[in-house]
Amino acid sequence: MIDYWSSNQAEIWRLLWSHAWLSVVPVIIGLVIALPLGWVAARHRWAYPPLVGIAGLLYTIPSLALFVALPGILHTRILDVTNVVVALTVYAVALLVRVVSDGLTSVSADTLQAATAMGYRPAGRFFAVELPLAVPVIAAGVRVATVSNVSLVAVATFVGTAQLGTLFTEGLSRTVNQLPPILTGILLSLVLALVLDLLIQLATRLATPWRRAEVRR
Amino acid sequence: MIRFDAVTKRYPDGTVAVDELDLEAPSGRITVLVGPSGCGKTTSLRMINRMIDPTSGTIWLDGRATADVPPATLRRGIGYVIQHAGLFPHRTVLDNVTTVPGLLGHDRRTARTRAMELLERVGLEPRMASRYPAQLSGGQQQRVGVARALAADPPVMLMDEPFSAVDPVVREQLQNEFLRLQQDLHKTIVFVTHDIDEAIKLGDQVAVLAVGGHLAQLAAPAELLSRPASTFVAGFVGRDRGYRALGFTTGEVALQDEPTVRVGADVGDARRVARDEWVLVVDEGGAPQGWWLLSGDPGGRADHTVEAARLNLGGTLATAGGSLRSVLDAALSSPSGRGVVVDDDGRLLGTVTAAAVIDRIEALARDGRSGDTAAAGRP
Amino acid sequence: MIGDWWSYLTDPDNWDGRNGLWANIVEHVTYSGIAVGVALLIAFPLGLWIGHTGRGATLVVGTVNASRALPTFGLMVLLFILISPHFTGKTDLPYILPVEIVLLLLAVPPILSNTYAGLQSVDPAVRDAARGMGMTGGQVLRQVELPNAYPLIMSGLRSAALQVIATATVGAYIGLGGLGAPIYDATQQGPFQDTESSHLATGELLTGAFLVAALALLIDLVLATIQRYTTSRGITGRYRSSSDLVAPSEVAVRAAEGRTDLAPGGQQVAAL
Q1: What is the number of structural domains in chain C?
Q2: Which of A34, A183, B186, C54 would you label with B248, given CA atoms 20 to 30 Å apart?
Q3: Could you tell me the residue range of the domain that residue B145 belongs to?
Q4: Is there a contact between C232 and B89 if contact means CB atoms under 8 Å apart?
């Protein structure tokens, strides 16, 4: 195991970095897209069922199917990393639209009325009051999206994108010493999920100092 | 009859919710447990049907210790109504009401027929029977809750703040209907509330509990108002006790004849019969409509008529035989200073001044000091 | 590209035979069905017990969180390498066992957590009233808690089914059949160029992907339909006659819009 690590250090780092990148970037893009959509769904009652319904529908599409079907839709090459990023972004949006909407809805109506009464305009109110108060709910969704992405990314091995999943296929194709690459892949995948989860939790704590006051009380 | 015999509830963390409580809830009567939060009133109630088991002491239900009856059997024989009704969301109103008869294995058809009768009695239309709880207002849900508790005709009912979660207007309606229902049913009822006014209005006897589960006073409502046993009870019962106690005092007050005019009469007629600036206006049936102010009539033209829209409606009406509180209030609220008293059908009997009511109250008090007061009656 | 897919999908020769698409579908449904069925047998009673007694709730939260981080694909390969040497001869077990174990690990958490969350979501006043009227523990569970938890339990089952159907695809990589087989087979034939065999592979690839998605959607639709017609109308808010409808509560409206299927802590996780 140690031998395997020392002789493949550079390759393992490269795969880990690629895996981390593929796990995080789609969630960030997804969040940017989901914020306005979730805002619409929270603001307008009629928009909620169709938006969340379509998001739920996207969820039923298996990732492998989406990875290989996207070239047909995007006119990208069949084994292109763009397909993976787009597919994972689609999942992130599908999850986060509902989460953002529910998060914004969870902000107390009294608080919003008070903000309006104090003279906030709609946009100002959104960024100064609604969004910060919705952070805990949205952050919980971002955690789910990120952590499950770490697991999903490995499937991209089938469409030729190198990341930790590559270690699994490498292990299986060996005739001897199969375990080191596979165990390394599983271990790093778990560690990555754990680290990203902790980072998001930490960021949430820093972004919502008032929640600590509530807990202490 | 329900009897608490030195009942104590102590939680594992050491908190004492109920402390050596001795209490009797007589059969066919409403006993109200009232007190601030943390006084153990709900705990006491829930110990009766063994939702909570006492740490020590015995609760007797018609001569049987409740601890000797299996909880499920005990509860099926006791009606139970709680604050948010707790209706089963997945069952229709009718199926909710027939829950206990179903548990007891009663005939389904009989249970449904009886449930329909009960729904009507609690003031719900038959078409409500097929609805689901989510389709009902809070007040309607609470009515279903009462019907459900009555479905198996239990002799005993436990009610835990059943009217607290509805708005004041609906609450008063529910309270009045509850009292009317009890006049017919004569259940043994233990009723928990944090609202002293509700306790005084509904209770045949009121048990005031203090924090820590001590019984501070057990008395009829009138006595609670006139003779609080401690500063805690006096403070809890609150202000205006003397005035509120009048709600339990009845007495004849001599009525004066009051000249009246009909709606639509000439102002000239009104001026002719008037005793002072104010004339009482009645309808064809003799029911008072309001007071007419003669000096408020612009120009005082003789052809001008008494219009319903310009009547002063400030005065309350007192019903003959009602409490002295309502008679005094009628006098105090009347613009003319003469309180209007009507009969049970709402027809004018006469008027009375505040001074006359006060005289009567003082005379009663003199008699009371030599004899015994305890005038009972509902507000 | 779409043309490649259509001609592959509509060619009857691709459907028949031992490695045809029909066989793939049957295999896929079988593997998924076994995993979901066994998961249901384990997770449902366990979830009921935890939800009813309130004991072991931390176990549920822990399981769900851990399952999200599970590197499914890696675990499958690992199990295959560990298990296969113990089987010799003509048996499919070295392929089936690792896949079924992983699918089971995926299917248990959503069913467990949603069953638990469903029971927890029952209004305490309703539970209190049920006990106060003299229901025994079993009666409260059967007559009150289960019917009210039912929509959440079903959504957990649907979530599990989706993930299992999607993940079973990956089983093709270690040699298991199912709808992953045409996908994996086709990816082995790259690079994709403008040759006849490449067009055939593209068609095969897209057909596999299409059928997995269609199967997932179909199963979800079937389960959603069952859920819709077996849930009390008092919970779904689909009341019998519209004239009877007086301002249903917010809860009822939300339920009618299908918002009940997101449990607190039972959020769906993207299907593999």
Answers
A1: 1
A2: B186
A3: 2-248
A4: yes
